[in-house]
Amino acid sequence: MTDLDRRTLIIAGTALGAGTLAAAEAARAAPAAPAALFEVAGATIPVLGSDKVFPVRRIYCVGRNYAAHAREMGSDPTREPPFFFQKPTDAIQNVTPGQVADHPYPPMTKNYHYELELVAALDKGGKDVPVEKALDLVFGYAIGLDMTRRDLQRMMGDQKKPWEIGKSFDHAAVIGPLHPAAQVGHLKEGLIQLTVNGEVKQKADLNMMMWSVAEQIANLSTFYELMPGDIIYSGTPENVGPVKPGDLMVGVIDKLGEIKVKVVQAGA
Ligand code: MN
Q: How many domains, in total, are found in the chain?
């Protein structure tokens, strides 16, 4: 600290001592930040084994990331770089382990599909993140369902219009609790399986992703600056299919346990 700094501090201290009351009065009179008209709840995801929640900033989703699913959707898996879309954060539906979450069948669809996916949650951000550093951004992983109004997605796609109504709607981002990578490691392989009413519908290995979580982050970070709170649905394996009210979906990913979700008639 220089003499000048010291002198400035002493002067400031004296002024503060003499003017504390006046300063407090001024603070009271200062205009407060504009008040919000109403509160908007922010989406969060519980962190397993902790009293903390993970606040969600953005939901990114990877399309057609398992070769067999790309083929069933009518595209050539060998020629396609990863592509992304988003869901609104308020589409999050949390699923508590050990409980069955009621999931309302959405309006305006007659072909409502499950897509079981590994979700990576970031607690650090970055732009142009190299693949070898990408997993440093990942806080943890969860089991997710990228619920899809397939008929609307296809109809809009056929008309070369945005998919929005097929993918972005209330409760469309189903998710279990976050498992910190510090505890489960980074998930690069292992079973990913969905049963509906006890029947296996989707079954694959995480190592069958065309673009790994690290590659997804690296690629995504060339288009967007990633931030803490961003989560990425990493794409679904093959054999997507429809559910109807009454169906019970159980999603399993190695090291992440399971989530149970029952489709119910809206308003029931
Ligand atoms: Mn998906």
A: 2
